[in-house]
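not sure who needs this but someone in the group chat was asking about TIGR02569 family protein from Pseudonocardia oceani so here u go. i didnt clean anything up, its just raw.
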Amino acid sequence: MTLPPHVRTAFGVQDTEPRPVVWAGRRAWHCGDVLVRPVPDNAVAAWSAGVLDGLQVEGLRLAHPVRSSDGRWVVAGWAASRYVPGTLEPRYDAVIEAANRLHAATAALTRPRVLDGRDDLLARSAAVAWGERRISLDPATGGTLYAELAAYRTPVQVTPQVVHAELFGAVLFDDDVPALVDLVPAWRPPEWAAAVVVVDALAWGGADDGLPHRWSHLDEWPQMLLRAALYRLALHAQHPEASARTLPGLERAAGLVTALL
């Protein structure tokens, strides 16, 4: 994939030689102080840009979006933002702290219409994890473990709001102030979004066993961790590239979550 000339022109970087980079684990093109990247969903990307454009979060740098010359946030499946330096680092407690600050700032947002009727892999997996729908999951890629954990699910009293559903891999570090590169919306409790970071860190990031314990003061924490583990297991069991070889990390996370229930 190359950066089309008309996209460069639209975002005002036609005179800057684009440099392909991997930014927060994703392919992008660095054009001076602007970063241009393909987006998987135009509507979500436009909503995210509109929110980030006016959002201020104490203690968090934001990759503020850049409009095209005709005022659009997305052009032919491409979006642009100001470049913020930083790399992914295994500073998972700091990521959760950033999540809590972000979600304090997004608590007043109304439920985005882009979430209506969504049935993509992320939305479907979250609905399954919360017991809102049932689907068949491949036992070999997480379905069996999912069924075992789902038996521990109990009702909770938490309030949904706009949260970033995929913060693991979206927070960069360059100094002591972390940076957020995008906003993947979900209408779920902020404690659950923090729990997803914990499960991801345990499963894929080599986090220490104490990570889930350090955030036990969050509301309904054991059940939030459980739903986060169910979310990732449901997603894994449906993913076309999943196999029994990619499951051990989630098995580790599930074991540590179960010990807290």
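also The first strand starts at residue 19 and ends at 23. if thats useful
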